[in-house]
Each structure stands twice: as C-alpha cells, then as structure tokens.
Amino acid sequence: xxxxxxxxxxxxxxxxxxxxxxxxxxxxxxxxxxxxxxxxxxxxxxxxxxxxxxxxxxxxxxxxxxxxxxxxxxxxxxxxxxxxxxxxxxxxxxxxxxxxxxxxxxxxxxxxxxxxxxxxxxxxxxxxxxxxxxxxxxxxxxxxxxxxxxxxxxxxxxxxxxxxxxxxxxxxxxxxxxxxxxxxxxxxxxxxxxxxxxxxxxxxxxxxxxxxxxxxxxxxxxxxxxxxxxxxxxxxxxxxxxxxxxxxxxxxxxxxxxxxxxxxxxxxxxxxxxxxxxxxxxxxxxxxxxxxxxxxxxxxxxxxxxxxxxxxxxxxxxxxxxxxxxxxxxxxxxxxxxxxxxxxxxxxxxxxxxxxxxxxxxxxxxxxxxxxxxxxxxxxxxxxxxxxxxxxxxxxxxxxxxxxxxxxxxxxxxxxxxxxxxxxxxxxxxxxxxxxxxxxxxxxxxxxxxxxxxxxxxxxxxxxxxxxxxxxxxxxxxxxxxxxxxxxxxxxxxxxxxxxxxxxxxxxxxxxxxxxxxxxxxxxxxxxxxxxxxxxxxxxxxxxxxxxxxxxxxxxxxxxxxx
Length: 563
Ligand code: GLC
Ligand code: CA
Prior knowledge:
Layout: E1 13-16, H1 32-37, H2 39-45, E2 49-52, E3 56-57, E4 69-73, H3 80-92, E5 96-101, H4 111-118, E6 130-132, E7 142-143, E8 151-153, E9 159-162, H5 177-193, E10 197-200, E11 224-225, H6 233-246, H7 248-251, E12 254-257, H8 267-271, E13 279-282, H9 303-317, E14 323-326, H10 335-339, H11 347-358, E15 363-367, H12 388-399, H13 404-414, H14 451-455, H15 461-473, H16 478-483, E16 485-489, E17 496-502, E18 507-513, E19 519-522, E20 527-533, E21 549-552, E22 557-562
Parallel strand pairs: 1-2, 1-15, 2-5, 5-10, 7-11, 10-12, 12-13, 13-14, 14-15
Antiparallel strand pairs: 3-4, 6-9, 8-9, 16-17, 17-18, 18-22, 19-21, 20-22
The chain binds alpha-D-glucopyranose and calcium ion.
C-alpha cells in the first residue's frame, strides 16, 4: 500500500494518567511537576509522543473527563506555567505532547451548563440537549454508560437534559453551530500553544440519533444501552470532517480517536488517507471481554480468540492506515493480568506480551507502569474503589444475584481502577509516588515491582522494554517496523502467536510461545540473527536454515531476522 508519509507514523507513544503518575508536593495527587521530572526517564525509554489524560479544571466526578474549563489547568495538577514548562521541556527532547480532548460532554460545573440551568430557554440551553419529558417520564429510555437513565430533570422545569455518561457530564449539542465554533476556537488555542495533537475521547457518541428514540429494554431496569443511538456513520462522518477541517488539518496535528466497534468497511473513513483521524485505538482484543449484561458476565480470555482477533485487526488496518496498539489504558485492567494465563504472569511472560504488541504494525501506545509490568490490584471492599463505573458494575453484578465476594472478584478483574493505582517508582513508602497519603491505594506488590529495582537489573522488564523500543526505532529496522507488512505466521501451531514484518529489504519474524510447555516451529526462511529475545541467555544457536526446527520454551519470545 502506497501512502504519504506522516511525521507520526514511526513514533512510540506513552499515556500518562496524571493523577497517579508522580506527586511532588505531598498532597497525594500526581502533578505536572512530577511529569516534568520524569521526562528524562521517558526519553530513555524511547518515548516520542506523550498523551496526557485530562489536566483541565474539573470536579473529577469522572477523573477529569468532566471538564469545567477547557482553558484552565486543574489546581490539583499545577498551573498553566507548569504546563507551558512541560510543553517546552518535551520539545527540548524532541518529544510531542498530546492532550485529551473531551468534547462529547463537559462538566455540569462548566459555565455553559450553569448558564443553561439559570435560563433553560436561553441561548446556553441549546449548547446541550434539553427536551421535554413524555407524560411525566424522561423523553426516552436509554441507559447511560455509567448506569441509570440518560435523562436528568432540569430543576424547576418540565425538561430533562441528556447525558451518556454521568449526570455530571451533560452531552454537548453538536447541532448548534455556535457551540461548534467555541470548540474549534478552543482546540486551535491549544494547537497554537504548541501541542502536537489530541486523543479524542468517546467521540463516536457525538453521532447519536438526536430524535432520541426509545428502544426495546435490554435489562431489568427497563432501559436500553445508549450505544444503540449511534446508528448513522454518515452523520458522524460529516461532523468529524468539519471538525478536522476547522482545526487539526491546519496544524498537521496528530489525532487518535477513542473509537469502539465500527463496522469493518467503515475503517478507511476513520484512518484512511483522508480519514477523520490520524489513527484510532485498536480495542478489538479488549472487546473480547464485553459481557452481554456487564462485567459480571464477561467471557474469559481465550488465547485462540485473542490471537485471531489481533491478526484480523492488523490485516484490516493495513489495507487503509495505521491503528494505535495498546495492551491497556486508564479504562482497562492491566494487560498482564488480563491477557496472560497464570503460569505466564512472570517477567518472561510480561516481556513476551510486550514484544508481540509493540512490534505490531501501527503506533504503539504504552500506558504508565506497563514498562515495569504493573498488575491488577486486589481489594476486599467496594468502598476501596473510586471509579464511578466500577461502583455501577458492582451493583449490576449484585442485582444479577452475585454475592459481595463474587462481585468483588469481578471488579478485581475488570475495574478501571486496576490501571489507576499510583505508578510504582520504588520500594519506599507508597512506592515513592507521594510523601503524603496517596489519593488511591498503591498496589501492595510495589516492593517487588518498581522502577528503582528494575533500573538495577539488566534483565528486568524495564530494561527489556527499552531494548524493545530501541529495536523498533533503530536505523536498521525502523522502516520495516513502521511500514513493513504484517504477515501472520504459524497460525495453526497451538499456543504460538507469530507474525512477520516484511518489506523489500527486511523480513523479521516475531514468534512467541504462550503455552505452558515447549512449542516447535519449522522455519520457513533462513534466520541470520536473533534481534531480541526475553531469554536470560541468548540461545546457543543464533542462526538457522530454513526447514530447521526452532524450539521455544514456555513464554519464550524471539525476534528473528530472516533472509
Ligand atoms: C472515555 C474515557 C473514560 C471516560 C469516558 C467519558 O471512555 O477514556 O475514562 O470515563 O470517556 O468521558
Ligand atoms: Ca501533587
């Protein structure tokens, strides 16, 4: 596939969840100065693009995804001066800063919404979806993503306002040109400041059907999931093209959309040459644990399905563009706890999973702590959780008949808080995250899993991630890992996940054994070098002829240069 080369094609990205990254003033909350102090660490890891989860002023009902002022930095995180310094410091290191753009909704504390409430027939009410109820009931029967009806009464009126997430996150009215202009101006203000682009939050929701129909109930609450309202890709596409034309395009910005479940044939509209975004996240493996009714009926992760899903996503993406590949993010449990079987939840297994993911075709996005193999947290009471969605899912599980212990087990597996525990910097109190009381409990495994310890050990996950990213970006292999085709290999060998990355110059085989016992493959090409392996020692043999057998022990991964 011939495509115009873009500045971001060969970059490696890293997501920071600021609240849990590093606290520098002892208030228990991560801050911008903490991020500034770790830029050298990120540079050494090989990171080019940093995506900051929201740092805007917010009441933090949904941890900053409820923005009260798009032009202000949350006091908890620092000041605009700190932000400007962070931006300047990233640039000094040749890095790019990407902000989170949350424009499907804002906070109920945003001035626009406050004005709307003050005058429910006025100009600002039309920045939102205000609708009259039906016979004393809400206008429709959709259930918000965080539970409960999407409609909330507007006090002192017979109207309701619409929200797909929490009731403190009113949806913005994308049919109002004035509102759209305000958003474009705001986006351009940040781009003028010098940010390189945006990760765009929950964006398909702007394409909802604003006739607000009701649907056949799908749960005991008599409601139907609001995702059903996103039925017209065409309307969504028009809105996104306008957005792009008025903002990102003018700055050659990088954009990554948080886009779930679009039809396969729509992919090119999103990431193709004139796609709505530079790229979108590949959530296909994460969606494998979508339960029919919630987290409690999530199917277990099966290796074969996982493998097929990744392969399919890669083959589809390379027809038209690049996907952004992740193992985890702030909304997902830790990948090593989720995708690795018990016997593989070891340093070797963590490196294997990282290798398979990072060398895929696309833009790798690491999430903070992934580079040291941070895991899910085990908590014993629902009170210990912070996340609004976890509380809702716990209730759904209880309503469905699960005991407290069973519902907690579900949360332990699926909670968004799994990824939100503080980064484990050292084995000192609170993992070196704060000298105060952390806003969220540190994972109790921090004495074993932490950055300081791994810095000391050449064989650690951290050192391995550095070598892995360095390989991806090396002069010799950058081209093939960026633009080389993805070609699945050994698809029928049980427990093995393997693929080639190949172009006219190079052919690299990535092969991993996720099984509990040894696995064998018969090489299809001569192998002239082992570019990377998670084995403590290089194998005695480092070159092979085609047709020879290569044996991989449990959790072995090898990156092999073929002839
Ligand atoms: C996205 C964010 C998530 C947030 C939601 C509402 O899915 O990643 O954290 O809760 O949007 O903004
Ligand atoms: Ca702080």
